[in-house]
Amino acid sequence: MAYTLMGSSISPFVRKVMVFLAEKGVAYEHQDVNPFSPPDGFREVSPLGRIPVLRHDDHVVNDSSIICRYLERLHPTPAFYPSDPYDSARVEWIEEYMDGGFIPVAGAKVFLPLVLRPLMTGKDADETEPRKVIDNELPPFFEYLDNQLGNGGYFVGNSMSIADISVASLAVNARLAGVNPDAKRFPKLHAFLKRMHARPSLQAVIQPILPLLGKRWKEFD
Question: CA-based angle 177:181:183, to the nearest 5?
Answer without folding.
Answer: 135
